[in-house]
Amino acid sequence: MQHISAALFARQACNRVGAAVAAPPNNYSRIRLVQLGSQLSSKRWYTSSIPHYQSSYIVEDHDSLRPGQRITISPGGNEPKRKKKRKNDEVVTKKPFIDRIHMRARGGKGGNGCISYHSLSSYKRRPCGGHGGTGGNVYLVTDPKISSLKMEKHHYQGQDGGKGGKNGKQGKNGKDVFIKVPCGVVVRRVLDYEELYGELDGMDEDNNSSGSMDEESSSPHEWMQMNSDDYQEEDDDSDVDEDESSDDEDTDDLYEEDAITDGDNDDEEEEEQGEEEEEEEDFETYYNRLSESQKQKMIKRRMRDTPSDYEEVVNQEVKAEDGMYHWTSPEVDTTVDDDLMASSAYADYQSMRKSVFLADLDQPHTAFLVAEGGKAGVGNQIYANRPHFAAATINAAKKAKPDEGEITYLELELKLIADVGLVGFPNAGKSSLLSAMSRAKPKIASYPFTTLEPLRGTVHYNDGHQIIMADVPGLIDGASEGRGRGMEFLRHIERTKALIYMVDAGGVDGRDPVQDLRILGKELREYGSSGIFGDDDEHDDITSSIGDDTDDMIRRRREIMNRPSLILANKMDLFSEDGRKEELLFQLGEVAEEVGINCNPGDILGVSAGVTGEGLRGLSRRLREVVSKVD
Ligand SMILES: Nc1nc2c(ncn2[C@@H]2O[C@H](COP(=O)(O)OP(=O)(O)OP(=O)(O)O)[C@@H](O)[C@H]2O)c(=O)[nH]1
Ligand SMILES: [Mg+2]
């Protein structure tokens, strides 16, 4: 029976296939088809039970049909979604890791209140308009399943509230929007342009009112002229020059007027000119004289010209004749430009980017309101008891207008939460350790900066205990000043309980492990001691009014050196003599003490993370002890 139905089905199928099957096969039982792209079953005998959505087959075995020939049966229905195959490669392709984004959130607008009056004779002219609905809010919600700040879009808006209706009918409230973010996100509100410049303008006014008018009135034109010569290097950009020169003219006119009004104070003017000569070289004064738009242009231009040291560092990878990548420590000048750094232009730039701390979302399933929906308009039903007052009608019209939703510009920054963070120079073997101790599959290669995004893995113990380990991209000398994107990477170890310093004991890249540890310790110390603006009093006037990170966050960063640490000398398989190994571990201990790394002598271990696995068992035991002490 089954044989017959199979034959029938096959004939029908072949008819549908038409030209693809030249001569209908006469022995159907020998047709063997392989379905293309199916995961459910790769091979099947041709029977009547072929699902309708399976449409494409390949002939494997038949007399008249050529094996390998593809036949197509008319498709019917939708093919189910196919799962992507997971690659068994060493490198698992994953979504890009994004740890800092800017976004805009806007609460929904409230709904209009309704103004209407009963028309029934007994109620005539009695107000009965319903209230509008409130606008939807926008929330951030932490979801432990998400690990990156990658978002579909960067603008989110709550739904607008519905209008109120007749007979006291209230409008619908707008739907809230919930944006999923990973745990460990720090939320800051970016001050928008007007808010920031409102404050800066206010400060300027204060300065002016404290008697600096005369200073401005004294021959500013010549002064500008002189200074623009002095700072010729800033005027390379011809586009901006033109704009600036037009602005200059504006300011000149302004100054000339002032000069006329103050024209009779010749003596004072001379004195001030003398003062100006002293200030000629002063970039800051020059900057302060510029108009707001000129300042912005200058800042943007100067910042754009700042060398992107990271690019240069990465570009140092050179593929040599032996086919391997070699890396030479680049000589990159990362100083932004001393006079710029010291100037208030730089401070303005910093404050332009500055933002107000809102929240540290480090707990899972926490909702945080970032933009509130607008209030609803009020319906005129509230005046139902006094319908005849004219005032009521006027007020009702005002009150019926809803509020706009709140608009916030946000900066979200993800700081990984892990029990232990791996710190080391590029190529030390950090990723090798992570892959040896956890199921994470980081990319491992013999060239530096293989890892460019922080990655976490979980170390599982037999009794079910788990420790989360974060592999942070390699740090280089000067990382605490941002060299080689150091600042970006270092912030991911702020939320760890313990640290593992890893050095390449084999000295594969010609590095000295002892010196490496010294540099790492120094960099972490410097990173820890830098606040957002550190203890720099210069910027206090700006930061105090704008706000800053919480004390808790600064404290966490400052305590980075107090964190219990382990020091690993990796690639011990390259050591042959035991004596040298002991000596190296001893030297590392001395350096740890010198730079102030918080570790016991027993926590300096020799391991071979990537080759023999030597020392890893002892490491995992010790790691657990160290981490559990911190709780
Ligand atoms: N001989 C030896 N080689 C190792 C060992 N561990 C790692 N390596 C090698 O060292 C090189 C760098 O290893 P990675 O784990 O990618 O180093 P990394 O610290 O993650 O480097 P970046 O991601 O560039 O910062 C690779 O070629 C590894 O095979 C080891 O224990 N012994
Ligand atoms: Mg790596």
UniProtKB/TrEMBL annotation:
Acidic residues composition-biased segments: 200-217, 230-284
Superkingdom of the source species: Eukaryota
Region of interest (Disordered), residue spans: 68-90, 153-175, 200-303
Domain OBG-type G: 418-628
Keyword GTP-binding on entry: yes
GO MF term list: GTP binding; GTPase activity
Pfam families (alphabetical): GTP1_OBG (PF01018), MMR_HSR1 (PF01926)
Bias (Gly residues): 159-168
Residue span(s) of domain Obg: 95-417
Signal peptide boundaries: none
E.C. no: 3.6.5.-
GO CC annotation: mitochondrion
SUPFAM superfamilies: Obg GTP-binding protein N-terminal domain (SSF82051), P-loop containing nucleoside triphosphate hydrolases (SSF52540)
One GO-annotated biological process of the protein: ribosome biogenesis
Protein name: Ribosome-associated GTPase, OBG family
Species this protein is from: Skeletonema marinoi
